[in-house]
Amino acid sequence: MSSKRNFPAYGECEAKADLDDLFRLVSPSLFDTEYIDARSAAALVAAGMEAFRQCKDEPRWKSRPILAELTQHGRRLNLVCAALFDLVCNAEYMHGRMTNRSWIYCNRDRDATTPEIYVYYSFLKQCPKCCQDRGLEPRISGAQHKPTSHHIGEITTVTTALFLTLLGQSSPKPLEVGVISKQSHNVDAIAWRDDLLLLFEIKASPLVTYPARVRLAAPFTESSDIGPKEISQHKLVDVEYSMHDINLYLANIDKDIPLGKPSSPKWPYPQIAKYIAEPDGLLTFMEAWGEVFLGYSIPKVARTGRAIVMGYLANGWGDEIDSNKTKGGLGRTDDIKKGTYQLLKFGAYYRDGSPDLPIRGALTANLDPLFLYEEYMEKLIDARWAPSKKFRTSMTDPEYQEILEKDLFYVYDAVLAFNRPVVNDKVLQGCFDFPSFEAALFSGRLDDILREWRAGA
Prior knowledge:
Elements: H1 16-25, H2 38-54, H3 60-63, H4 65-70, H5 76-94, E1 103-106, E2 117-121, H6 130-134, H7 149-170, E3 176-179, E4 189-193, E5 196-202, E6 212-216, E7 221-222, E8 229-230, E9 236-237, E10 246-250, E11 255-260, H8 269-276, H9 279-296, H10 306-312, H11 333-351, E12 359-365, H12 373-376, E13 384-385, E14 392-393, E15 401-402, E16 409-410, E17 414-417, E18 422-423, H13 434-443, H14 447-455
Parallel strand pairs: 5-12, 12-17
Antiparallel strand pairs: 1-2, 1-9, 2-6, 3-4, 4-5, 6-10, 7-8, 10-11, 13-16, 14-15, 17-18
Helix pairs in contact: 2-5, 2-7, 2-8, 2-14, 5-7, 7-13, 9-10
């Protein structure tokens, strides 16, 4: 996977030094990374893909309203990929990063004879249970267990590259995919075959990261003037989590993915992969994730009832105003702006500087801006541009400027957002195509890759 075979020749050209750097910096393997257990991530993706293939005709896709809505417009596999992207990030956020500190204590039924008492290891700033029927309380300071930005960038880039690999290998003329090992480089990943080089600007971030939870056998207490008393609701507590059976809590459907005790270096990947490998497990997760996705896709001012609650469980919320830095996919407007600049730079510094090799750029994300799409991308999605030196005065009317078709570039050669991919440049037609991906998956053409990924965990 991502050896440098078939890397296209580009010869002596203006962009040669930049292209030499790309060739030098592309990692020899997607698994050669420090901040994510990429082999376990690939095994989880493979388990989900195989489960999707098994359940493609499962009646639940039609009988359950949320699943039925996810199948509309022929985008079922697109959204399975977007959901599995979140699940991989969820697993990696927990993998080797969980601590005993700052679990949210929740005994919402403390007056009951036998209350159910839980502690939550949350990636948001509120109780994942209580926010659904009691609304957003003041944010719980210190409750959000999010990896550092540097780690998140590596996690999301590698996870995205796994799906790009499956898409690239599904193309009629397959493409290799590799990530750029230097995080500060202006290219995040590349795809290539002997006659094409595609540069990726990746702006990916999970929409949903569900909390871990532990059920307690008895209340936590603290001393007071009248003796021991139960601690206050939603107080942050320390929990020796390795001594407990842990669950990944699908909060909006009130179901758990059992993870057991953290007893192996790869935990919780194998446990989540085992759950998602069963068609029923995949469909259950898709139903939970899909409800959040559909609710969050509604413009904020138009959300009512359950859609408002789903916003509370999506990254980017956590208090009364959005936390823009954690919005899913391209939901952060700064990422749209930065990504758009990078695509322009790819055209000016790589494509225009290497006229003999087709070089294209793709803005890539797990999700497009969703409810912000119309305001921020719709009118730009097929815009075109060219350097001024490419224009010439019309021979027939000097008031007009004209340009050759080959010198007119798209701002976005492609926007490869899993939920709504757009491919403008005809050179890329069929290269990263979800219908081709689905056909390859169902026909068994991807079996060798999926077996390799499952075996490598």
